[in-house]
Amino acid sequence: MKDNPVWRESIEVFYGEGHGFAPYFYLLVMLAPVEFLSLYLPSLDTQMWSGSASLFRVSSVTALLLIVYFALRVANQEFTPWRFKPVVRWMREQGISPGSVEKAQLAFLSLHVGLSLLLCLPLLIWAGAIARTPLSSVAVTFLLLWFYALCYGVWGLVTLVLWERRAESRQVFIRCFFFCLVFASALFYLPLNPVAFLLAVLNRQELPPLVVAGSKWSASTVHFAFHLLVGATGLAAHRWALRRESGS
Amino acid sequence: MRFGGFRPTKRVERCHGRTAVGLHWKGIMSFSAAKAAAFPIHLHDACAGAPARNLCVNHSSAGFRFGPATGLLSLCIFLFPALGGAEILIEPRVGFHGVFQLGRPFPLEVELSNSGRPAEGALEVQVWRGGATKGGSPYPLLYRKEIFLPAQSRKTVQLTVDPDFISRPLAITFAGPTAKATREIDLRRYFSPAPVMLLASEGLALPTIAQGSSAPNRLVALTLAELPSDPRALLGVSHLILYEASMRELSRSQVLALDIWLSAGGRMVILGSLNYGLYQEPALGRFLPVRVTGAKRISFVPSLGKNARAAPIADVWAQVSTVIGGKVLADSQGIPVWVEASRGKGRVTYLAIDVGRPPLSRWEGLPGLLQYLLAPVPGDDSSPRTQWDDGIFSQLVLSPSFISAYVPNRSLFLAMVGYSIGLGVVTWLWQRRRLPARILFIGCAAWATLSSIAGYLLFSRGGNIPDGVLLAATVIEGSADGYVEAQSNLAVFSTQIRLYHMQMERGWLELTPVASRSREAPEPAVVLQEGGGASRYQLPLREWDYRLFRLRAVERFPLRAELAAEGEQLRVQVNNQSAKDLTDCWLVVPGRRYQLGDIPRGASWNRVFSLARAKTQDETSLSRAEAINFRDLSFPDKTREILFHSSFFSRSSAAAPWSGSAAVFFGWVRDPEPRVRIDDPRIRVHDYALFRAIVPLGGAEDE
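YS: structure for the whole thing
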């Protein structure tokens, strides 16, 4: 991977030149106040005073939204896009194979998600300790955040390759995609929604199963199947888009 | 049927009110529960399968007829009872000779008889609290006491139980490793809707007093030794009538219980007697408003109210005494005949004449006189109640000043700032390229990991988050004789799943859980454990759970505040002989308020304030100013402010004296004595106490 020029370019622009610090700064600047102020806000629970009891829930949901959103934007190269060489040029002028570009972009997305989680780690761990959340629940939360960020973030790569020269279209698509999956999915079937699922896991609640044509599917199965499908479709679409760009 | 040398006989016997037909063994030998299980035919068949209604479940007492083959075995078992099993019989006695007032605590005496081997176990009495009348779901309250019963022994346990409703039976259980016995009592057979009157007398006939009482109160005659040693057990008693009763044999706790009961509003009526020596005993002397010196015959003119006077009765035996406290309401030939003294919220009435001997015992007007004596005294209203509910509790726990009591908000803020600074330093080093990128990346990861671990240890295992918090907000109402009534509002809330042990201080009378509107699930059982002269409540709480209580206590607190309206002036006298300082004291009268500062312990303070209205006020504001306005009062401590406005002086209680024209003196007690203790360093205790004295001013509004 070290010799992959796409990977090296991403690392150099994002971390070497420091252009990629912005999403991490935004992430922390939003997560920390939300976490601190949620101590003082009455929750909507039946026990009105339990602001501190839901500290970890509020913090982890905020982290989920922020990490997924910034993963999509980073994958979509919305931060200093002019510093990145277009994918088409890598493949056509530098002779980089679509597979190498795919690997580099996926590796960089994983690195960004990992770094985001690392930076959020203290804040979420502290919230968990204050709210008396079991460590197992904290660990499950981190796994879910990582899972959602990758499943959704890969669609940022898809748009980047598909509409590389149309930055505005990409941005609109990314935001619509984020809104549909993270918010509107709850309108159709609540367990599909990552926020609802995360809260259900933390509250140890049973979500209603999906009943289709008489067959019953557990909420967890449907949730993970749906998200694996979203991730796998994104990966396939990314590979297809890269092949298409290299061929044309 | 035969077992070895035993020969069964069939007989019918009464078993705790039920007729039991079964196979019994004649003789004196008792069989263990284990043996009974092995030979189930030994049990009372009818009772074993009977529904739980006033029946003894474990009563495997059986007998045998001595036969030649079993003599040695029987002798061995008789001489070594440890070889047999424990056999427990529960015999309860409810209330005062089977009477108690509904809705008030009452004494329950449980006699445990063990006719087998020694047994150790817990005696549990379960009553039901909450329910529809209390606005919440019913939950069991368990009274628990550890008991050791030697072989062939009998032990009596006194408890004070307080069910909220009696449609469900009271269950008594003795359970230990070697024995278990259960009994249920239907309390509906014992209750009285009105308070009970107790008569302790050696010679006075019950009918005489009974005729004298026209009230619906049930009169129960008992000996003083039967009085409970817990003041709470006396809360359902309105009057204690003493005649020729010696208090010499009373235990210290019984005397103290009487003292507290009196201060909490009880009435003691002491009838004089020819045997005046009994009245010179120190135990009775502490209650008497007179010092008895002798007895002599007098001519007694009965006074039956304002304008009713009967003909004089000659040669009535009366005690000679000198008044040491209280008010003489009637005297005859220089002898105080009728003296009344207040004691806290209660009252002691002393009648010097001997109503149990002729000529008064034969006097037809005696029932009327006694009726007059026992009549309720007007003006014995209880103090205005404080407010305490989920809403006030929510205000408290969400107030920024109180959050730090259970959440380390400052530490969290500092940790966030420190973490951000650390990341800022790493970023600065990165941009300055002072260190290689690899080292900086590792440093950043290490900083985040170290921060996480340190913060986790600090916030979860450090001393910053308590397992729970006990908040006690108390209002102390002043009274004339150094006794005060304290109303405490308690909140216990937990950040962990754990059991809380609350220990009541001496003088507590009632601990009532406040029903929560927001709860749908049934409340968990509360256990009250008595032992070592202390009462301990065991309360399970989930994480981030809470429970509210109201506590009433009577205690000695020699702080006296007297407010007397004299025309346009109000004289305020405060004498603080307590061990506590009063801080942030205020006097509030209609339209005005005065900040009085602190009144330290030992200080005496006397001032006159004008009640005249401020001349700058117009007529509209004058009429509005008739009521006291607490709205603008504020305190530096926000928790105090919330407690003051929402709980202690709530505007929602329209019947409170401060809603009309009144003068109110109050001050905060510095470092108040806790009325409830939780001896656990992981639980923080916050105590707030306010002393108040309220005097109605009888202004234009009242007229």
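YS: worth flagging: Chain A has one domain: 5-247.
IM: good catch. Also Strands of chain A lie at 210-212, 215-217.
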